[in-house]
Amino acid sequence: MKRPTKAIITDAGFASRYLPITKTIPKAMLPFGNKPIMQLVVEECAEAGIREIIIVATAEGKPIYEDYFGNAVNHIRKQLLSQGKGDRYNKTVLEVLDLPKIRVITQDPTLPYGNGSPIASARDYFGDDEAFIVIYSDDMVFGASDAKRLVEAFDEHPDAKAIIMAQEVPRSEVNKYGIISLKDEDKLDHIVEKPDPNNTPSTLASYGRYLVTTEIFDLLRPGAEGLDNELWTVDAITKLAERGDVRVVKTKGRWVTTGDPQNYFIAHLQYVLENEAYAEAVREAMEAYSTTTR
Known about the structure:
Structural class: alpha/beta
Helix content: 25-40%
Number of domains: 2
């Protein structure tokens, strides 16, 4: 398989837990600081040397992503230049325009419901001998590029059927996640969804960072539905593990989820406190609020 140069990033759901804002704005366009989640995920791919990114969006989200990643807003540039504020454009908008090639597609409506369907929808953009990255935009990783780590792991194990990222979680929380059962030291046997903490195969949680080969498309198709008649990426990866090695790699960063408003807010706050120039002002405001409400 060829070394990965492409990635699929999915944001094809309707994010009903975020309504009403997501009736107009795709969930991965919600901000972390002054960047949307999707841009941070694309930057993670760029750090890994990915040259082409396929965003799988809803029909409503497609033009929004195309505008964000393709519109040079020259009227804003001209206005800022006339005010001597050209750096505001150069350090923000140009950064977006310089990202890898981005193609936005919609999910194939003939496919079953499920988180594997956005991946299957991108089949026509890959040859038969490619490995590629898959990222769910619900999942953010702070402090390291999982995409880069996946490519490095591919260099070490080019014959792997897939490579998946994992993070240790507290035993008391394994019933929230897909938990990895290993064979040998770093090879996937299977994944157990939300196991009982007293009967869990490990405390390694799988999340939305994968490196797969085009073989996965054979397993993400109508007729391969699993639980609740949905097409599951994890089911396809488990089947790949039956055919050959699926390597498990622990993240060097910190995985957080933005799948619901509560976790999004916590993750956003953490991002601001760790990355933004105004972090100290936010800490002071939090302390002042805590003092006045005691």
